[in-house]
């Protein structure tokens, strides 16, 4: 049995350890991490999954981005403890986050991944044909999802980091 809740500041060390376990200590060299430097995570959209002992065994975070003048969310990282992969926990985290992002009125979500089949189940589609690009990232690894009907219509261009002035955020460290 796993519980999915919003991440709390005290969860940050356990989340960082899980991310190192899942992606390795060099994970912060990825292009998508440049989008997180100096940009606070979206506080009310960062989730953790805990096992019955309260241990953090999954995480999903979001970061604010802009495409031209349109605000969006960058999904990632999504990580599940290696011994729980295939358990459905990643899907559980995705479903909770997508429902909450839609409830909060967000319109666009983007991500960088090689897991097209997994994210395709949630409606993500290749972003290149939509005219979306991320500096330093291969277009074939970029995916987008309209959380509101038509949210991606007429939105194209570079996806860039964005710091909303009014947005409270978790103080999540991003290792250099």
From TrEMBL:
Name the source's superkingdom: Bacteria
* Ranges where the N-acetyltransferase domain occurs: 2-148
Question: GO molecular function, one example?
Answer: acyltransferase activity
Could you tell me which Pfam families the record lists for this protein?
Acetyltransf_7
Instruction: Give the enzyme's EC designation.
Output: 2.3.-.-
Tell whether Nucleotide-binding is among the UniProt keywords.
no
Keyword annotations: Acyltransferase, Transferase
InterPro entries the record matches: Acyl_CoA_acyltransferase (IPR016181), Bact_Acetyltransf (IPR050832), GNAT_dom (IPR000182)
* PANTHER family xref list: ACETYLTRANSFERASE, AMINOALKYLPHOSPHONATE N-ACETYLTRANSFERASE-RELATED-RELATED
**What is the protein name given in its UniProt record?**
GNAT family N-acetyltransferase
The organism that produces this protein has a lineage beginning with: Bacteria, Pseudomonadati, Pseudomonadota, Alphaproteobacteria, Rhodospirillales
